[in-house]
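During the no-cost extension, the postdoctoral fellow (Dr. R.K.) reprocessed legacy sequence entries with the updated structure-token encoder. One reprocessed record is reproduced below for audit purposes.
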Amino acid sequence: MATKGADTADTRADVRTDARAALEGTRIKWDDSSMKSSYANVCNVTSTREEVVLLFGMNQAWNRGQKEVTIHLTDRIVVSPFAAKRLSMLLQGVVNEYEKRFGTLNIDLPGGEPKK
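Re-encoded structure tokens follow.
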């Protein structure tokens, strides 16, 4: 479920993309007819000189003291380093907006609860 902050960031990204396209004389039409939604609570990233690979999956281990945990990978997204940098900037903007509205995210705490 999208939040208003995420919608705002998405809108800004769309505006930047549309503005760039207008300068180049190209109109962008978003086709979401083949889109699927996935949930992931684990992400890993690897890279080579030519590509960045994002791996998404689920950690379903409920006991914290386990010696081995199996992550069920569900999705792989491969992007160029340029697209990865743009994605990084967009994600940083979304996180900054979230923290302004809801408080700092402390990723060192269990559960990552926002600190108010």
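The first helix runs from residue 4 to 24. The two ends are 23 Å apart (CA to CA). The remaining legacy entries will be reprocessed before the final report is submitted.
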